[in-house]
Design a protein that fits this description.
Elements: E1 4-8, H1 12-23, E2 27-32, E3 43-46, H2 48-56, E4 74-77, E5 83-85, E6 97-100, H3 101-112, E7 122-125, E8 127-134, E9 139-145, E10 151-156, E11 158-161, H4 168-173, E12 181-192, E13 205-210, E14 213-218, E15 226-232, H5 236-239, H6 244-251, H7 258-269, E16 274-281, E17 287-288, E18 291-293, H8 296-299, H9 308-325, H10 330-359, H11 364-395
Parallel strand pairs: 1-2, 1-11, 2-7, 4-13, 11-18
Antiparallel strand pairs: 3-6, 4-5, 8-9, 9-10, 12-15, 12-16, 13-14, 14-15, 17-18
Helix pairs in contact: 1-3, 1-9, 2-9, 9-10
């Protein structure tokens, strides 16, 4: 009889885990609190490890990428609002694949639909766990229908909590959020634009970064850009009170450049956006008995790291591999899974502090140093592109 696993969360981490479990011969069941699947979403730069995980999970052929030709142009706006050649997220080493979150989830959705295997995963919307009881021989879960409140119990051989930064599974099994969520004294707001900032090309990326606050516009090849507004604050709880739009207009007052003006106006018109405080999740172990966590629930590297989607995909792929290697010993499988993945996660959690300074410098001196570093990086990139073009011309 095939082992059954409950996966809590229909995001990237959850669907990746479900596919990994199915590859290992398990029968996964996914529950999702929302009444339907999310689409669209904000910019994601999928790194090499994430692209390889997509191959391992069998979804690479379904993944639509949106990289502008030659990586696209990036512009850095000065304090006067003038534009200078800049270095965008897609210009960093590793050649990230430009996607929105929904692109990855759409590919995973096709994967769990069983097109290749003929084994669709059981997905239950508007369903949430109420109690999780690890008996040692199985995990008995009390499930509830969010709409009706009806409850029922089911038993599973493993539960995987992939329900995000403020994971209900983590809180239920491992303890309060405060025990694991580190505070970064920063806020983010992300949303899609309907149209590009005026006077810029459709595929351009635009960065307006000042001490303590920044606006990033991420350009794509075949859709309007998405936006990241981010700023530093020593009171994140206060930021979440009142009108988000008014809060952001106050924070970005004085930054009178085209990107700031356009994005703040667009925010007032967008039907949906994400506004939240920035955290990382740090845990001594990602599993307890027959309950494991994956993705942001386990290790949230945060948006500044640029590795959230990549880590979530890799987490599911590696989980499946470990369970396939240890089919009769889930404890050993979870231990091996974590030992393979943790060095990668730890590395990128640490790098996120440095990357935060690139996204939103903490002071005027750091802002000045950042500008110099990016100018040098921009010059180096232009030289590499010129050399590549020359070699191509010679080859023709």
């Amino acid at each position: 009889m095939r082992k059954r696993a409950l996966v809590v969360g229909l995001g990237i981490a959850g669907m990746s885990a479900a596919i990994g479990l199915r590859q290992a011969g398990w029968t996964p069941v996914i529950i999702e609190r929302a009444p339907e699947r999310r689409t669209d979403g904000y910019f994601v730069g999928l790194m090499a490890e994430g692209r390889q995980a997509a191959v391992d999970l069998g979804i690479a052929d379904h993944l639509h990428t949106r990289n502008p030709p030659d990586g696209g142009k990036a512009w850095s706006l000065t304090r006067r609002g003038d534009r200078e050649p800049g270095v965008g997220f897609l210009h960093q080493p590793g050649d990230p694949a430009a996607v929105v979150r929904g692109d990855i989830e759409a590919a995973l959705w096709r994967g769990i639909g069983g097109e290749a295997t003929g084994e669709p995963v059981d997905v239950r919307f508007a369903t949430t766990p109420v109690e999780i009881d690890d008996t040692g021989s199985d995990v008995r879960v009390l499930l509830a229908d969010v709409g009706t409140g009806a409850q029922y119990r089911e038993s599973f051989d493993l539960v995987v909590g992939a329900d995000g930064l403020r994971s209900r599974v983590r809180r239920t099994v491992f303890g309060p959020h405060e025990d694991y969520m580190t505070t970064w004294d920063a806020m983010i707001c992300v949303f899609p634009l309907r149209e590009q900032v005026p006077s810029f090309a459709a595929t351009d990326s635009i960065i307006s970064a000042r001490a303590g606050r920044a606006v990033w516009v991420f350009g794509f090849a075949d859709r309007p850009p998405t936006v990241l507004l981010t700023y530093r604050t020593d009171d994140t709880r206060r930021q979440l009170a009142g009108s988000t739009i008014q809060r952001l207009r106050t924070v970005f007052s004085g930054m009178d450049d085209p990107a700031v003006r356009h994005t703040l106006t667009a925010l007032e018109q967008t039907p949906e956006f994400l506004f939240d405080s920035v955290h990382q999740v740090k845990m001594p172990r990602w599993s307890s008995g027959r309950v494991a966590l994956s993705g942001d629930a386990a290790w949230c590297p945060n948006l500044y790291s640029g590795m959230g989607a990549t880590a979530a995909l890799r987490g599911g792929s590696e989980l499946g591999r470990a369970l396939l290697e240890y089919p009769d010993d889930s404890d050993a499988a979870l231990t091996v899974w974590e030992s393979r993945l943790r060095p990668f996660i730890t590395k990128h959690q640490r790098l996120a502090r440095l990357k935060q300074q690139m996204f939103v410098p903490s002071s005027r001196p750091v802002e000045a140093v950042r500008s110099v570093v990016l100018r040098l990086a921009c010059t180096a990139r232009e030289r590499r592109l010129a050399t590549a073009r020359a070699r191509t011309s010679e080859g023709n």
